[in-house]
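anyone else get weird line breaks when pasting these?? whatever heres mine. first is seq + C-alpha cells for prot A
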Amino acid sequence: MAKKAAEMGPDHSMRLEALGKWCDAFSGVLGAASASALNVMNFPERVDDSVLFIFVDFLPGAKSPYTHDIVDAEIVPLSVVRARALAEAAAFPSGEPPAQRLATFERTLAPRPDMIRVLLRDRRFSLSYTTPFVVARNIRHCKHDPLWFEHLQMCVTRPVRPRERP
C-alpha cells in the first residue's frame, strides 16, 4: 500500500502514514469497538465471515494522535467484500493480473483464528488501511457495548477544550 500511495503522490503517502499512526495510537479502543460492532461475544462466527469498515476523515494540520475523525462504519459479509474487490479490479484495471489481485485480497483478508478484520478507509483516499485485531479467547465474558460507535467516536475525536470565560 505504501508503494501505491507513493505512486499517487506525497499527499497520499502522508495520509496513509497518518492513518497507520492513528490506528496504532487507538488500537485498544478500535479493537474493543470492533468486537462489540460484530458482537463476537454472542456470535463468535462473525470473526470468520465479516469485515468491519470504519470510514474516517483526515484532519490536515491536526496534532497527533487526533489526525482523523470517525464518520461512519458498516459491517460487511466477507463474500460481499470479495465481490466488491473483484468488481473494482475489473472496473479499474492495473498492471497486476486479476488472479494476482485476488490472491493479494485473499492474503490480506483471509480469516485468521481469533482475528477481527477491520478496514479503515479515509473517505477522500482511494486506499484502505487493513488492521487485524486479536480477539481475547475469553471474549464471551466481555460485555457487548450497543453504543460502540458513539463511544469510539468520543475516544478518538480531538479533545474539546473548555470554553474560556471572560
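and prot B, same format (seq, then C-alpha cells)
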Amino acid sequence: MLKGLALTPPVIGRISIGKVVEKEGRRLPEKDDEFTVTSQVQNREGWITHPIDETLRTSAGAKLRSIPVRLLFDDADLSLRANYTLFDRGTGRPMCVGNGETCKRSTSSGVQTLPCPSPEGCELAKGGHCKPYGRLNVRIGDDDELGTFVFRTTGYNSIRTLSARLSYFHAVSGGLLSTLPLELRLRGKSTTQSHRAPIYYVDLTVRAGMTLADAIGNARTESQSRQSSGFDQGALDEAARQGFAAGAFEESEEEAASVVEEFFPEDFDNGQAGGSDRLDAKPGLAEKLNRRVASSQLTGVVASGGK
C-alpha cells in the first residue's frame, strides 16, 4: 500500500445540483433546480451524463428531484465527511482542513496538526477562502455494490441537513445505515440573504411510499441476510476508516482542481490556475500562508524576548 495516499470509497459517478458553464470566456458555476448524475468524464460542454441519470427520470425531460440510494457504511462519518477546507486557488491543492478544534495544514516544513478556531476566528481564513466542504458517498442501483456516486457541496443547508439526518437514522435504526432504503431529495427555501429567491439544498429521507418503521424493518431483514451470507459490514467500515487515515488530505491535487473550479471560482478562472510559474504571477495562496505562519512565529519570538 502506498504511504501518504488516502484510500477513499471507489467513485463511479457524480451527483450535482449545478454545473460549470462558460460565460464571456470565463468558466463559472451555475446553480440548478434538479439533480444531475454524471460520469467522471468531461468534454468541452462539461461532465458527461451517466446512463443511470436517464433511467432515474420518470419521463424524458422530467426534473430529477429525488434519487433512491443506499449507503456503503454503517458509520455516518464515513459516508459524509464535512470539514472547513482551504484550497490553494492557483494549484487546486488542499492547504488546510479542520473541524473547528484541530486542523491539518500544509506548511513549508510539511503537514502539521494545529488548533482550528473555525473560519470566523482564523487569521489564515480571512477573505472568505475557507469554507465548509462536504462529500457524501452513496450507492445508486445494484450493479456495483462497492461503487459509489459522490455529492460534493459547500452549502451550509445541505451539510447541516445531511449531518442531522444521518445522525438520526443511525440512532433509530440501531446503526444499520448501510441497509436502510433511503432517498436523496432536493428541497428549496428562500431567505433574506437570498433576497427571497429560491435556493436549493439536499436532504436525505426514507424511500417514497415507506414509513420510517417500514424502512427499519427492511434494514434489519437485509442486515440479517448479509450476515448469514458472510458479509462483514464491520470489517468494511474499518477498512474505510483506515483508508481515510492513510493520507493527510482526502482530495488529490487532480480532483481538487475541479472542486476549486466549481465551488471556489473567484480566483481559479483569473489566469492563475496552474500558472504560478509565470514571471508576472502573483504569490499563490500557499506562499501567502507560509508568510503568515512565519510572521506569526517571528512575532511570538519577539514577544518572548527572543527566548
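btw re prot B: The chain has one domain: 11-272. The mean pLDDT is 84.
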